[in-house]
Amino acid sequence: MFNESTAVNLENRRLTSHAQLNELRDHILASRDPDRLEVVVCHGTGCFANGSPKVVEALKSALDEKGVDAKVMPGIKATGCHGFCSRGPLVIVKPHGYFYQKVAPKDAEEIVEQTLIEGKPVERLLYKDPKTGDPILTEEEIPFYNLQERVVLHNIGKIDPTDITDTIAAGGYQALAKAISTMTPEQVVAEIEKSKLRGRGGAGFPTGRKWRSALAAIEKKGRPVYVVVNGDEGDPGAFMDRTIMEGDPHAVLEGLILGAYALGAEHGYLYVRSEYPLAIRHLEIAMAQARELGLLGENILDSGFSFDARINRGAGAFVCGESTALFTSIEGKPGNPRPKYVRSVEEGLWGRPTVLNNVETWANVPLIIDKGADWYTGVGVSHSTGTKVFSLVGKVNNVGLVEVPMGIPLDKIIEEIGGGVPGGQPFKAVQTGGPSGGCIPYSLKDTPVDFDSLTEVGSMMGSGGMIVMDDRDCVVDVGRYFLRFLEEESCGKCIPCRLGLIRMRGILDDFSAGKGTQQDIEDLMSLSQAIQDGALCALGTSAPNPVLTTLRYFKDEYIAHIEAHKCPAGVCKDLITYTIDPDKCTGCRSCARQCPQGCIRGEKKKPHVIDTEQCIRCGICMETCKFDAVYVE
Amino acid sequence: MITFQIDNHTVQAKAGWTVLETARHYGFEIPTLCHHEAVTPSGACRLCMVELRDGDWSKLVASCIYPVAEGINVHTDTERIRNVRRWILEMLLSECPASKQIQDLAARYGLKQTRFAIENPDEECMLCGLCTRVCEEVVGLAAISTVDRGVHKKVGAPFLRPTEVCVACGCCVTICPTNAMQSRIDAVRRVPATAVTAPTSK
Amino acid sequence: MTTQEASIDEILERYPGSPEYLIFLLQDVQKSYGYISPDSMQLICDRTGVPESQVYSVATFYQSFRLEPQGEHDIKVCLGTACHLKGGQRIMDELKRRLQVEPGETTPDMKFTYTSVNCVGACALAPVVVIDDEYYPSTTVKKLEKQIKALSQD
Ligand SMILES: Cc1cc2nc3c(=O)[nH]c(=O)nc-3n(C[C@H](O)[C@H](O)[C@H](O)COP(=O)(O)O)c2cc1C
Ligand code: SF4
Ligand code: SF4
Ligand code: SF4
Ligand code: FES
Ligand code: FES
Ligand code: FES
Predict the structure, then answer these.
(1) Which positions in chain B touch A491 (Cβ < 8 Å)?
(2) Whether the CB of A337 sits within 6 Å of ligand 5
């Protein structure tokens, strides 16, 4: 990117030992002035879409105009997502650490004059404490950040992901160099086992145990063995893995190389979702730079160990996140899952022993090897060690990416870090685990967020999607949403999933049209059971979960649809009416202009009225009205 | 030899056998739709599910692919199994309502009609995938394949147009457990302009 | 036409001729041509040695492959969970009303193709619409209308 800090030339700098890596690191650190001015501009997807590239342009031209002299000429650094996406674009000025939010190009001049030249913060752009209204100067002091424990994300937002020298300066590849020079592969496996690391991709399977079974399979069948990164991140509404791949690609790569070393793999694959072009680009750059330095490829750090990897872009199929489907897809075929009665550590890619782990799982590996399993088990709780990254979205003030120690109460994430529901009322439910997970009601807000506790309440950890719902979100609608999603994403191979999901959705469609019966609820439960028991892969077997948990915790709301023909949340179109509150309506005519039916009438500057006969309940009027005059019942 | 239990009877099987093979060998009845000795099992129809039990623990597996193992305790007809089979058949009654075979099978589970709406009254195919497997694995041509995914999945030739790759051997028609391939074959096979008569299988 | 032929040859040469590169080839062809024509599919079969029926099976299984020419502008409406809760469907319905074609189809003037996607990873900005690879945060029906008008005119 446009990082001017790369004063270090990497050409012909192939590293041949841990000592040389340290030398290079010292050299990089020495060439950097810690007091140098630096403007960090978040270039994560959120800030990028909100215009961070334009902010950079504006900063550059403001610097040109002001004729800033070389001494105060800052470096400009583009980083991955800082997690606080709802406040983007974010700009941080170092060394002061001033944290500016919602920065627009027009703010550039002021930042240059006040902060870069005079060293003072631009108060207007600082984050304000929502309770006291006081401005907060730095990232560390903001509640959203200081309640988190950023372990896996520690580099993201600080380093330029396209410049390996940043990674090396921050301690990247230390774990790899340490393992290769001082640990046997067996010791690496043992350390991962001891850390009790569990897979972050959904099921929470112990990673060390998986690697151990792979060793047993290799014993039986010999090599080759493959190591694979699952970067398919299919959960709609989640972007943890994306952020890691984009913001700290070397962490994933280093983890993968460590896994390859532990298992004696020579070849690895990174399967990345096609909707993530930037993640793919950053991983490609990272791999090229790592090869250049002898950290990937032939004879890594002159140890005799060789390993290389390749990226497979997904082609748009959620089911390819499932392990056997992912392997068939890498083999170039349609991603139909295979029955898993022989485990994929024994018979995975090309029928060979294979270890597949999630992006975040791999990114934990270097941390464990570097700092030791004892340190790792000190974070989190005993059966769920370490931290977990969540993407906190939906009806919550601080939408973004958060990393917390396992076992933290759900409420703390939503209320304290997330800042609660806009408007201040309690949340209605939190959906975790994506389409395979479930809804946790407010009454269970103290549930500790770890693998086993979430399963106990009928939901699951999943990959880390956390969707906050308020009283305007309908559980029947959410159930329909996930079923429709899975029905479109089902591979269609087995009958319970291919036909069962669409039939379940049909029953919910009836509910939302006010046409259901008690018998339908019973059928829904028994059909769910048949799908859970009968489907071939976990897409199908877990698909009824969102419906089953909402039936468990929000049965009244289902009954309201069926018996009273009402959608209490005001979502199901057939059961609601839009009305304009004459006291609030100013007669501005905005809604009438937008209404696709042209069914809003009234004189200018007088209260308007909706003709409910013609209304198609699209909700555009409610979205358009600036005076909250349109309401729904 | 591997020794285990089916419906509380002791049975023996060779290593590498499936539960279905063993059960059939001993005359236990397990319904199947997507299984045929001539092609690789795929585990698609889920009608052959059996229940494994071990104390309080129990799990349903597809017997046509589940490898036998020492000491397992297999049940072929439990309430949980019947629930799966009934729903599958009830859904198939609306999906391929024209298939006599499906109707007969459904009747054996006490199902005469379906709660679900019928969209295509002439449909017979239930996507067992036997035809595509036989064409690829036995005939060696792969003239047809599955097309699309999920609820839109179907079997057909590329671009859903007749193809010259098909030699009209009729294997797919023979293996099809419903009558579906019979009425589809003309949509699959294109007679090359030069050919006088298409070869037929005996 | 000859330049295009040359470039498909160049694409075919990028990978070894084996089945595992089938998806790579389909992706690269689609990237250069916007869709995969029957002719290029045939060339890919020859190159990888995969029977045509199986290539067709792959091309129809994965959502990102297009087998027909696409509109000049590509509109993707995010219907991931976050966007769904914030009204993504409303945007989708509005597009249908406005463009008068079904999702996945192209307007008769070949200007627009629109589809839904499941999460583009910018959930904080829900509802998100991606037009020609550019993200539009917090989209409303009104903002969408402006964009479409602007694009229809050029
Ligand atoms: C339908 C389906 C989709 C999945 N999608 C993903 C995914 O996008 N990313 C992921 O890491 N795991 C996904 N998984 C879980 C993987 O199958 C697998 O368990 C995981 O990648 C193993 O890695 P871990 O042990 O590190 O979690 C999915 C599973 C299913 C059944
Ligand atoms: S459960 Fe669904 S996705 Fe999995 S194999 Fe069956 S049809 Fe395919
Ligand atoms: S909901 Fe839609 S159709 Fe009904 S009045 Fe409002 S804008 Fe018009
Ligand atoms: S045509 Fe017959 S053999 Fe082929 S999938 Fe359909 S039912 Fe099975
Ligand atoms: S993209 Fe900038 S904070 Fe997430
Ligand atoms: S016969 Fe076993 S799944 Fe169809
Ligand atoms: S749900 Fe729309 S961007 Fe994630």
Answers:
(1) 149-150
(2) no
Q: Contacts of residue C41 in chain B, CB cutoff 8 Å?
A: 158
CB–CB of A491 and C61 under 8 A?
Answer: yes
Q: Flag if C124 and A315 touch (Cβ within 8 Å).
A: no
**SS3 category, C145:** helix
The shortest C-alpha distance from C129 to chain A (Å) reads 11
- Expressed as residue numbers, the domain containing A198 is 164-377
Those chains having 3 or more beta-carbon pairs within 8 angstroms of chain B are A, C
CATH class of B2-76: alpha beta
Whether B44 is in the pocket of ligand 6, judged by its Cβ within 6 Å, is: yes
Q: 3-class secondary structure for chain B?
A: CEEEEECCEEEEECCCCEHHHHHHHCCCCCCCCCCCCCCCCCCCCCCCEEEEEECCEEEEEECCCCECCCCCEEECCCHHHHHHHHHHHHHHHHHCCCCHHHHHHHHHCCCCCCCCCCCCCCCCCCCCCHHHHHHHHHHCCCCCEEECCHHHCEEECHHHCCECCCCCCCHHHHHCCCCHHHHHHHHHECCCCCCCCCCCCC
A608, A585 contact by CB (below 8 A): yes
In chain C, which stretches have pLDDT less than 70? 1-6
CB-CB under 8 Å, B141 with C61: no
| Domains contained in chain A, number | 5
Predicted structure pTM score = 0.94
| Residue A113 domain flag | yes
Q: Give CA A257 to chain center in angstroms.
A: 23
- Looking at residue A631, what is its pLDDT? 93
Any atom of ligand 6 within 6 Å of the Cβ of B130: no
For residue C61, the chain B residues in CB contact (below 8 A) are 148-149
| Mean pLDDT, contiguous 10-residue spans, chain A (633 residues) | 53 90 95 89 92 94 81 85 93 94 96 92 94 91 93 95 96 98 97 98 94 97 97 91 96 98 98 93 97 96 97 96 97 94 92 98 98 97 96 93 96 95 94 93 97 94 93 94 95 97 97 94 97 97 96 96 94 93 93 92 92 91 92 90
The reply to whether A570 falls in a domain is no
Q: Which domains does chain C have, with CATH numbers?
A: 3-61 (no CATH), 73-152 (3.40.30.10)
Q: What is the CATH number of the domain that holds A46?
A: 3.40.30.10
Q: Of all residues in chain A, what percent are helix, strand and coil, respectively (each to 5)?
A: 45, 15, 40
Interface contact B44, partner A, CB < 8 A: yes
Token readout for A382 is 């005993």
